[in-house]
Amino acid sequence: MRVAIVGTGYVGLVSGACFAHFGHDVICVDRDESKIRRLEAGEIPIFEPGLDALVAENVAAERLAFTTDLKSATPDADAVFIAVGTPSRRGDGFADLTYVYAAAEEIAAAMKGYTVIVTKSTVPVGTGAEVEAIIRRVRPDAEFSVVSNPEFLREGAAIEDFKRPDRIVVGAEDERARDVMRELYRPLFINETPIVFTNRATSELIKYAANAFLATKITFINEMADLCENVGANVQEVARGIGLDGRIGSKFLHAGPGYGGSCFPKDTLALVRTAQAAGAPTKIVEAVVEINARRKRQMAERIIAACGGSAKGKTIAVLGLTFKPNTDDMRDSPALDIIPALQAAGATVRAFDPAGMEEAKKHLKDVVYCDGPYHAMDGADAVALLTEWDEFRALDLRRVKDLLKSPVFVDLRNVYRPTHMHEHGFNYHSIGRGSEGGDPRKSPR
After folding, report:
1. Which residue, among 106, 81, 71, has the nearest Cα to 162 in the 3D structure?
2. Catalytic annotation on 263?
3. How far, in Å, CA of 69 to CA of 367, rounded?
């Protein structure tokens, strides 16, 4: 089939490369001329393992191309995907649909023959209906369907998620559109991937509900971690004990500094605002948003407490800046709250991240960016592990101790075993492991 994808951000580029890998003819469209030139030159603007090779393979096979001209890409397409950004709108937290609606108008003006317009961007309930109204207003003569097809890609594992998804959700109002979507995803039938067909409103809500539920699991285990510290329990064992229950599951039960990234923060907030506007407020999700924002700020307090209660004049090494490993995404990363708070307390921050340094420089000023983890720790008064990159999981602890002025190690991801760290002479602090991970009375919450 012939596919056009509007937007070459994370979702659009991964989806385009994977659809091309399935054998479809795909053209990705973006207004950013410099981005398109980079893509045509084989340069991938985002960090996602395996994406560079997948793009190169399908460009070479002439199944994947890039353009800035939506008018030339749309007329021949059987399906046009809208995969543009929907950031939180300033001031009220609603999803900003400016780019979605602009894309709909451009598609309407350019399409010929029956076309399925697919909303891949994360959008509130009712967006599909508005997209249909826009297209109908611009092109009352057009033959088309508007479909919701939310993405469920994890950064760092997006290609695997697209090729072997847990499920595909399609919100369509007519059988002709469903047939097009079946054909697009036909290669996944071999893997017996479940396809959930529903109406547009339900499909749009499924995406928000899924992300809000996962964010709630993270926030729940973080609160359990605080309780564990106060009663001498171990949150990792609590998580294992409840995660083995098939009704609960073990995923997203890892205590840490709070969730971040491109999806959970904006989607939970958008769901809260949508529910409030609909007269059905989601009190649980409201609490999750509030607790998560507070938790990020509290992580800086934990680091300062580990330094003896004051960070003034001290140097703190920070390992990891992105919101999770295997991505360069800094959006709503805990580091964006923690590092400025440390600086405001008088600390100098030396930082290293394997992939996020250039992106971090756009957001975090007056940070000493280092060439590696040991460079960051050289002469520091303490080290704080914020992101659990693989290369931070087996640090040479003797070398770390020799480099640090004092053996203070704050592990916000519970990468290391407390007993092992204590044996190596570290003043070690972790999350939710009671007296094993440090003195909880010195870790304000």
Report:
1. 81
2. yes
3. 40
Torsions phi, psi for 409 (to 5 deg): -130, 115
Q: How many residues does the chain have?
A: 445
- Radius of gyration of the chain from Cα atoms? 24
Please say whether the structural domain 2-198 has been given the CATH code 3.40.50.720: yes
Q: What are phi and psi of 77, to 5 degrees?
A: -80, 140
Structure tokens given for 306: 């580990």
Q: Where are the domains of the chain?
A: 2-198, 213-442
Q: For residues 434 and 353, give the distance between their C-alpha atoms in angstroms, rounded to a whole number.
A: 29
What's the angle, vertex CA 426, arms to CA 315 and CA 257, rounded to 5?
A: 65
Domains 2-198 and 213-442 share a fold: yes
Between CA 136 and CA 254 the distance in angstroms is 47
Question: What's the predicted TM-score (pTM) here?
Answer: 0.92
Nearest to 31 by CA among 93, 92, 88, 106: 106
Show the tokens assigned to 36: 């398109």
Residue 94: what residue type?
F
228, 263, 307, 370: which is the annotated catalytic residue? 263
Topology adopted by domain 213-442? Rossmann fold (3.40.50)
Strand partners, 81: 5, 118
Distance of alpha carbon 231 from alpha carbon 221, whole angstroms: 15
Please, what are the averages of pLDDT over each run of 10 residues along the chain (445 residues)?
A: 96 97 97 95 93 97 97 95 93 91 96 96 96 97 97 94 96 97 92 93 97 98 97 97 97 97 94 96 98 96 97 98 96 97 98 97 97 98 98 97 98 97 97 70 38
The amino acid present at 169, given as its one-letter code, is V
